[in-house]
């Protein structure tokens, strides 16, 4: 160890007495300082304007524009300049012969020079640490643990770069060639994950070898044993190759033996990488304050309840527009979406099945090949796109395994347990595309408990839960590509008829009665009353023109739909298209889904052809107003029917009254040991396909009305609550006038001090 230290000390002396090391240090300090000042300037400007940012630590260091993220992107440019002369200089000057003649081994030489690079790397990280300390002084409750984990990730990455550069430097006496060679190997390691993607074992090895983004999780605050082992093993591999290279120049050995040793080192590294990248071999540490890099406790509890084995099979239709996510070259990236779940249940098996068939998400494809069969289309597409059609199942073959037509033959995952339970996990037609923790968690929750069953009354002209008309309820009830539909949020839905001898099934937890055109018969009313008496939860939605049909249902509950149509004079939309407000007190009591959309973003709910609600509290229910109109400019229009061509005018003589009208009421009462919950809406179209989609250019919160209401109905069981506590690193003690001093300090003072220090050392050496 003493010899290694002496070699490192001599190398550092040579390094710091040369202008290259100081030049790199000064440039690094200035470049990092410029990035840091820019980020702090944004925060200071926001603080000056009175804006409060959460997660100050994460936004400063990580994310897409954070300090650590940017440093990671250009760190590889510095190391070739530092390492290209480590061994090349010894070869070109002839001093390597003195080293060979001295009592040191090749291992001592390589490890000594690598130690010098590790120490120099600490100096570079020290520049970053100064900025971290400053951030800790000006940001309240700064996340130092998270910051140090990110620094560790950058340092390990730098050490890996150093080992690569040292190995390449041992191959040649030309420093420029060594520098270029280092960049070539780094480039190869960045793109090696694209090699051998058609073979599972090779794909796993090359994906593990890829160095691109390897420190990303540590920058985000998560330590994974796989990443730590990667940096250690890869660095050890290149150091071992460098030692073997030096040994080959010191003593003769057959080429076959030497190449065998090289291949043995590489093979051993790949084997270690493959083993340690298995989910059951991984360990984790989340250094973030809110544990945002870990599943929420709710999801962890669900995963811990899944005791037996499980398989997630991804079915990829090559003709689907989203097939790209499951292509062989993307499999490992796709698997990373489940890394947090594999952390808590490492025995999950993931399979991929490839096929081709007609698909609902790619209608233009059929139009391009008129008159051709799907087999002919697939063959032509495979020739154009260089697909191996032999590895795809035909429509007949896939149907023998599973019928995916109900799913539209799109990209979909089937989750299966050993006990036979199954559930689909889908992609969604929105900007995020992939399911979030809420959708994945509630899918797993289906395996460990009975989820709420929602029945939609039918037989009286109600909207259909499978129809695509504007007034239908497909979008919020069962649309498979809509993230917030009840189907994807953990509810089971079905249509319920109570005509004839049919009754409301006992397993129905929530009953929806909406927009009926015909009244219930006395026998049907009796069945409904029995459901209400047994404490079943209920959503009742009416609207203008439906008062006579809906009032017999709601009046026994102490509620009445008022006559007329609610209107409000507006410039941009029709007067019968009401924009109603949430009642903050009720929102806070019932569901956080309401609070998120209305109290945070101040969105409103759009209701077309709504009616006001009147209520009493003498029927045993606690009544709370959830939605209501403005107190001025709103009235119940009794005369106008054509709101497109006619104007509305308040006419008190016709019974039109200008005041605030409730349009949604939440009723509750205690029945036995549980609380019965009933929601009454003065408008049925607000939760229809048209209403949930919203008007173009108008910010509305209609779909949270659905998710919030059913979250209340299900007593919080669904949708899954995956909220996290807010971080405490919110305040910052910097404002815009302070930034010139910060800029001078980090873009001027720090680089100048390093420059003067290096200049003084260089002059002193010249004098000596």
Give the count of helical stretches: 29
Stretches with pLDDT under 50, minimum 5 residues = none
What sort of overall outline do the alpha carbons produce when their principal axes are compared?
Answer: elongated
Give a count of the beta strands, DSSP E runs of length 2 or more.
19
Mean pLDDT: 90
Largest sheet, order of strands side by side?
8-7-9-10-19-18-16-13-14
Helical percent range?
40-55%
Q: Report on the biggest sheet.
A: 9 strands, mixed
Report the portion of residues in β strands.
Answer: 5-15%
Structural class: alpha/beta
Rounded to an integer, what's the Rg over CA atoms?
34 Å
Quote the distance from N terminus to C terminus: 30 Å
Organism: Butyricimonas hominis
Keywords: Membrane, Transmembrane, Transmembrane helix
Protein name: Gldg family protein
Pfam families: ABC2_membrane_2, ABC_transp_aux
């Amino acid at each position: 160890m003493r010899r290694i230290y002496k070699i490192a000390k001599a190398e550092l002396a040579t390094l710091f007495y040369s202008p290259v090391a100081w030049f790199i240090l000064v440039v690094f300090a200035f470049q990092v300082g410029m990035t840091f000042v820019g980020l702090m300037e944004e925060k200071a400007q926001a603080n000056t304007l009175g804006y409060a940012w959460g997660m100050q630590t994460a936004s400063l260091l990580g994310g897409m524009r954070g300090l650590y993220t940017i440093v990671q992107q250009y760190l590889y440019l510095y190391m070739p300049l530092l390492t290209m002369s480590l061994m090349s200089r010894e070869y070109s000057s002839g001093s390597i012969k003195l080293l060979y003649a001295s009592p040191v081994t090749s291992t001592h030489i390589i490890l000594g020079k690598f130690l010098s690079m590790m120490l120099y790397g600490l100096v570079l990280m020290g520049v970053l640490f100064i900025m971290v300390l400053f951030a800790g002084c000006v940001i309240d409750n700064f996340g130092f643990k998270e910051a140090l984990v990110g620094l560790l990730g950058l340092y390990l990455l730098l050490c890996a770069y150093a080992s690569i550069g040292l190995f390449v430097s041992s191959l040649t006496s030309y420093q420029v060639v060594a520098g270029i060679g280092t960049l070539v190997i780094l480039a190869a390691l960045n793109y090696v994950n694209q090699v051998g993607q058609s073979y599972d074992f090779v794909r796993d090895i090359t994906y593990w070898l890829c160095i691109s983004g390897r420190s990303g999780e540590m920058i985000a605050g998560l330590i994974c044993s796989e990443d730590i082992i990667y940096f250690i093993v890869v660095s050890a591999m290149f150091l071992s190759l460098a030692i073997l290279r030096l040994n080959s120049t010191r003593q003769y050995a057959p080429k076959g033996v030497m190449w065998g040793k090289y291949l043995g080192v590489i093979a051993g590294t790949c084997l270690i990488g493959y083993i340690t990248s298995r989910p059951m071999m991984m360990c984790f540490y989340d250094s973030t304050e809110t544990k945002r890099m870990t599943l929420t406790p709710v999801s962890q509890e669900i995963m811990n309840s899944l005791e037996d084995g499980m398989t997630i099979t991804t079915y990829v239709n090559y003709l689907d527009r989203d097939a790209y996510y499951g292509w062989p070259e993307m499999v490992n990236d796709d698997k990373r979406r489940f890394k947090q779940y594999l952390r808590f249940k490492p025995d999950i098996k993931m399979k991929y099945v490839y096929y081709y068939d007609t698909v609902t998400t790619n209608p233009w494809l059929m139009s391009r090949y008129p008159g051709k069969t799907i087999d002919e289309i697939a063959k032509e597409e495979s020739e154009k796109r260089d697909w191996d059609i032999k590895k795809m199942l035909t429509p007949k073959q896939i149907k023998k395994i599973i019928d995916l037509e109900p799913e539209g033959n799109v990209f979909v995952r089937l989750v299966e347990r050993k006990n036979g339970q199954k559930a689909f996990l889908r992609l969604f037609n929105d900007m995020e595309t992939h399911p979030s923790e809420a959708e994945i968690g509630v899918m797993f929750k289906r395996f460990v408990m009975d989820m709420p069953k929602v029945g939609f009354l039918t037989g009286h002209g109600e909207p259909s839960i499978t129809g695509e008309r504007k007034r239908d309820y497909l979008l919020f009830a069962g649309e498979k590509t809509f993230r917030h539909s009840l189907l994807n949020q953990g509810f089971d839905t079905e249509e319920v008829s109570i005509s004839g001898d049919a009754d409301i099934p006992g397993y129905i937890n929530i009953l929806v009665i909406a927009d009926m055109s015909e009244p219930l018969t006395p026998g049907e009313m009796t069945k409904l009353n029995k459901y209400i008496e047994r404490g079943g939860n209920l959503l009742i939605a009416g609207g203008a023109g439906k008062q006579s049909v809906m009032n017999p249902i709601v009046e026994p509950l102490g509620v009445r739909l008022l006559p007329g149509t609610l209107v409000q004079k507006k410039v941009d939309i029709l007067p019968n298209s009401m924009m109603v407000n949430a009642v903050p007190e009720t929102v806070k009591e019932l569901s956080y889904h309401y609070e998120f959309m209305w109290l945070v973003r101040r969105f409103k709910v759009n209701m077309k052809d709504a009616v006001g609600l009147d209520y009493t509290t003498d029927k045993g229910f606690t009544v709370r107003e959830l939605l209501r109109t403005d107190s001025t400019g709103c009235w119940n229009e009794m005369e106008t029917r054509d709101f497109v061509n006619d104007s509305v005018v308040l006419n008190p003589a016709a019974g039109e009254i200008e005041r605030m009208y409730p349009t949604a009421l939440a009723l509750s009462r205690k029945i036995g040991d549980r609380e019965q919950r009933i929601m009454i809406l003065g408008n049925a179209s607000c939760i229809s396909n048209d209403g949930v989609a919203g008007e173009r250019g108008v910010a509305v919160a209609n779909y949270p009305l659905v998710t919030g209401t059913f979250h209340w109905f299900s007593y919080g069981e669904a949708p899954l609550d995956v909220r996290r506590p807010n971080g405490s690193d919110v305040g910052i003690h910097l404002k815009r006038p302070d930034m010139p001093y910060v800029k001078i300090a980090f873009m001027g003072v720090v680089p100048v001090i390093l420059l003067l220090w290096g200049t003084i050392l260089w002059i002193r050496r010249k004098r000596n």
